[in-house]
């Protein structure tokens, strides 16, 4: 009788052992998935840290750019309005280095000159003030933009300075003309001005589009007076 009672118990124990043995890989799989989940969480933390680092770098880049634009603005503001007070070593362009341009339809008495000699933005503005009692040219419509581009296209240069400059800090940055006139027209190239890296505005001699470039670049320029 005792043998008959022990037989079902032995069979039950054998089945349980087989079940646990077959289920072991499943348990190991669950542990592996848990480990992977922790690894993925760690990867997410690393991505967050990387994104934060990129934001800091971008912020630093914008801060440097804003500082550079502010320095350029201060340099431009420091330009003396009195031609007699300007740098005595600054030479006025020779006549053969200039091209007289047609006037703007909006200003019949205005005169314009294209100076072939490449200069930085600040020196170009100083030449316009000292030699012509004017400023780098401001542009307020498509037609005049085309007239300037057509004349500049004869030069062996890709760009010329016009009188646009970026002033201010961060959200308070704005584009201004050196002659103080209203900024009421734009003709930016594709992606500009956001993709530009400078604070001063140059015109393409090929298509007339505007680009932001470094103010220390040496380019020909157009004065209005």
Automatic annotation (TrEMBL):
Protein keywords: Disulfide bond, Lectin, Signal
Classification via Gene3D superfamilies: Mannose-Binding Protein A, subunit A (3.10.100.10)
Ranges where the C-type lectin domain occurs: 112-224
InterPro entries, A to Z: C-type_lectin-like (IPR001304), C-type_lectin-like/link_sf (IPR016186), C-type_lectin_CS (IPR018378), CTDL_fold (IPR016187), EMBP_CTLD (IPR033816), Eosinophil_major_basic (IPR002352), Snaclec (IPR050976)
Record's signal peptide: 1-17
Listed Pfam families: Lectin_C
PROSITE patterns: C_TYPE_LECTIN_1 (PS00615), C_TYPE_LECTIN_2 (PS50041)
PANTHER family according to UniProt: PROTEIN CBG13490 (PTHR22991:SF40)
Name used for this protein in its record: Proteoglycan 3-like
Organism name: Galeopterus variegatus (Malayan flying lemur)
């Amino acid at each position: 009788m005792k043998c008959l009672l022990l037989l079902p118990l032995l069979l039950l124990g054998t089945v349980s052992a087989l079940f646990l043995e077959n289920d072991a890989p499943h348990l190991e799989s669950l542990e592996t998935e848990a480990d992977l989940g922790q690894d993925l969480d760690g990867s997410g933390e690393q991505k967050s840290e990387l994104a934060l680092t990129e934001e800091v770098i971008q912020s630093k880049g914008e801060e440097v750019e804003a500082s550079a634009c502010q320095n350029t603005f201060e340099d431009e503001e420091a330009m003396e309005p009195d031609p007699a007070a300007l740098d005595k070593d600054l030479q006025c362009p020779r006549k053969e280095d200039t091209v007289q341009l047609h006037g703007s339809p909006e200003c019949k008495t205005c005169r314009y000159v294209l100076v072939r000699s490449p200069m930085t933005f600040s020196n170009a503005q100083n030449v316009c003030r000292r030699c012509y009692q004017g400023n780098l040219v401001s542009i307020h419509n498509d037609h005049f933009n085309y007239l300037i581009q057509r004349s500049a296209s004869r030069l062996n240069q890709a760009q010329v300075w016009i009188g646009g400059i970026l002033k201010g800090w961060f959200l308070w940055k704005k584009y201004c003309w050196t002659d103080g006139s209203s900024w009421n027209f734009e003709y930016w190239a594709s992606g500009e001005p956001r993709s530009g890296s400078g604070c001063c505005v140059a015109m393409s001699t090929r298509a007339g589009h505007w680009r932001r470039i470094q103010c220390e670049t040496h380019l020909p320029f157009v004065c209005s007076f």
